[in-house]
Amino acid sequence: MDSPKTKSELLRALEAGRREWDTVLSQIDGQHLSEPGVEGVWSVKQIVAHVAGYEEWTTAFLNDRLNPGAGILSAHDAFWQEQLDAYRQDHPDFPAQMNATDDDQTNAVVVAFYDQYTAQEVLEREQQAYQKLLSAVQATPESQLIEPGTIGKKSIMEILPDQAHGHYQGHLPAIQRWWAQHQNQGNL
Question: Has residue 115 got a pLDDT over 80?
């Protein structure tokens, strides 16, 4: 996937990726969304929860830049630190600080948090997370989106695909394969 170069290209890519994501997810019967083994041990519900976590962080990051001093990202990070603290009760081997977790550990905390919700609730929360992300991107000036070195050495424009539409593309093949096998086995 080519990285968008302008805000309008980014918005088109977000919306196109979203349409495909929603189309695939809408084809899966709700009763099957929590079945494990779609991608590793994860269910569709857990994949969607994982994606929501990335969308939420990116939205908090963008909104923090749009509202300097509001502490939006700090509040977001504090919430996830609380989730890690609770998670560590059963997983004491995890780092004590969220900013010290690796990707797999972060994903485990996010998915564990979302496991308390039904599959339908997770889908709805992720849809809301996407809408908030889309609104934040729309509100962010293009100059801030393309500013080099915003996150590490990359601009927001460069990292955003991996937080949304590119992230969908990374998980859709596993979901589609699993659902096709499920249908072919007559497990409906």
Answer: yes
